Amino acid sequence: VEPPAQPTRMQQVASGLSAKYRLTLFALTLLCYIVIIFVNVALILTIILEEKLHKPMYIFLCNLCFNSLYGTAAFHPKFLFDLLSNTHVISYAGCLLQVFFIYSYATTDFSILAVMSYDRYLAICRPLEYHSIMTKQRVTFLVCFSRLVPMICQSVVVIMSSKLILCGFQIEKLYCENWSFIKLSCYSTTLNNIVGFFVIILYCGHALFILCSYFQLVTFALRYPERRRKFLQTCMPHLICLINVTATLLFDVMYARYGSESVPQSLKNFMAIQFLIIPPMLNPIIYGLNLTQVRNSFFRLCRYKKQVEGLG
């Protein structure tokens, strides 16, 4: 028996999107996307333009904001288009690209948060050695590590998925994701599952590394009260971001594999896309409000722009 031909287009099922609510959802999604772009670009420009913020911690934060723009660009424009369309289709190649961009965004977030926890550990627990360890070369290496390793992992995942012979073309989600491809395969996907679980374990290792770093930080802050203020100011935003990203991603990964079919489609849709809305929108706000240097630099740049405009 000849294997079925590969589909050239994939159908994205979004039955939970009632027609009468689509315009409302479109307006809310567009507003969220505009806010995501504004807060992330504002924080990136503040860090780039303010020379005092050219420090490892803020460079990693800039990388986190850039990653949010990268990941949401793979989802929001297509989702906004689908909300105004009666058919939710995407090309086969476009679907694979969406898998790559969204998955590499999610795993890069974890890598950046792991790098940031290492930076905070050095700054608080080993301050005398900080500048000798966090050199420009080390910072460059860590930024490259946080971006290249996730991209390599997801390239392997997507290439393996592209080799699967599919017996269907419907993706039961608002966007393309790897588990949906695997479920459509006509043949065994054992190797894909092994590689997928290896990637999950790798990033669980990142989470474990972050927890160990925070255990050291909390222990140090309790032992030396004078360091407690620095811990609360610089580490609490990071911890909130970590909990935010971990909770949303873990729910999505676990629900995709083991979720109940009795859950309403609208709730499934919301839970599936929250990690593409909540962390990218809240992370820059959390950091911008809690880090005094970032907040002061942002307002100073805003005042300077107004003064320039007034002179003009």
Characterization of the model:
The chain has one domain (9-310): Up-down Bundle (Rhopdopsin 7-helix transmembrane proteins). The chain has helices at residues 22-49, 56-73, 76-83, 92-125, 130-133, 136-162, 178-183, 190-223, 228-258, 265-273, 278-290, 292-311; strands spanning 9-12, 89-91, 170-171. It has twelve helices and three strands; from the N terminus they run E-H-H-H-E-H-H-H-E-H-H-H-H-H-H. The chain has a three-stranded mixed beta sheet. The mean pLDDT is 81. It has 312 residues and is mainly α.
Entry keywords:
Rhopdopsin 7-helix transmembrane proteins, 3 strands, single chain, three-stranded mixed β-sheet, 312 residues, globular
Order of helices and strands: EHHHEHHHEHHHHHH
Task: Report the radius of gyration as a whole number of Å.
Answer: 22 Å
- As for the number of domains, it is 1
Q: Roughly what fraction of the amino acids lie in strands?
A: under 5%
CATH class: Mainly Alpha
The CATH superfamily is Rhodopsin 7-helix transmembrane proteins
CATH architecture annotation name? Up-down Bundle
Helix content percent band: over 70%
Mean pLDDT: 81
Q: How widely separated are the two ends? A: 75 Å
Spans where pLDDT lies below 50 across 5 or more residues:
none
Main beta-sheet strand count, sense and barrel state: 3 strands, mixed
The number of helical runs is 12
CATH-defined fold name = Rhopdopsin 7-helix transmembrane proteins
Strand order of the largest sheet: 2-1-3
Helix/strand-derived category reads mainly alpha
Label the overall shape.
globular
What's the total count of β strands? 3
Membrane topology: Multi-pass membrane protein
GO molecular function, one term: G protein-coupled receptor activity
Domain G-protein coupled receptors family 1 profile: 39-287
Organism: Xiphophorus couchianus (Monterrey platyfish)
